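Shipment paperwork, digital attachment
Item: protein structure file
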Amino acid sequence: MVSVGVAYDILRWEEKALIEALRSVGADVVPLHLSAKSFLLSDGLALPDVVLARSVSHSVAVESAAVLEGLGVRVINSSHTTAIATDKVRTASILRRYGLPTPLTGVAFSPESALRLAREMGFPVVVKPVNGSWGRMVALARDEEELRGIVEHRRYLPGVNSRVYLIQEFIRKPGRDIRVFVVGDRIPVAIYRFSDHWITNTARGGRASRAKVDEELSDLVLRAAEAVKGEVLGIDIFEDRERGYLINEVNAVTEFKNTVRVTGVRLQNIVAEYAVSVARR
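Attachment content:
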């Protein structure tokens, strides 16, 4: 029997569903509550064959994956992938390096250069945190005065990443974006996320329904997964009227409760089967 660990800090619906699904396919499940764990970097530790990295905390997700990899454990997603996906600057840079379409994005390292960058890009612009989920701390600046207020606020936030200004063009979406799920080399399901607000995250009140995945979208998403070397991802896509599909973000510890609810596709089973297949290789 293969053993599969689920590393988490908060036991959400997704982690409970994954544990149940892993047991249903015959895996020996090892829950790893990271808040209560420590790891000695030494030989001889009894560890699972594969671990699903499911920490909500970005830093814990990256560092715990790195520690487990150092102990010889296969982690899904790897620390490399997670480090890219949890850092929006790294994500944008990797996607750009691979020639994948994204919204126009710039990075500045002082309030003055952020204002100059936004003028060069043209208003309105979106200011994003380097690290963040659920649409938190994402702000729309429709003109220079609004941007000055956002930049001034960020100057007094704790953490060095508040001094990095990630600025993106504002995409006039058709009232929705698309989240596409990747498991291995498959796309099992995708959803539209609708909202009357320009932020469409379901955590911020967005509504979900099943989305169609055409050949162009499938090819784009699988290329993005390959670029970040990801195995289980949620990739967010914008639809631009002139340029078509644009990759907005890549999520390495993606939530899927609402996707299961509105589509009936049991993603937890698909991920569990994939993890077991990796453990048996």
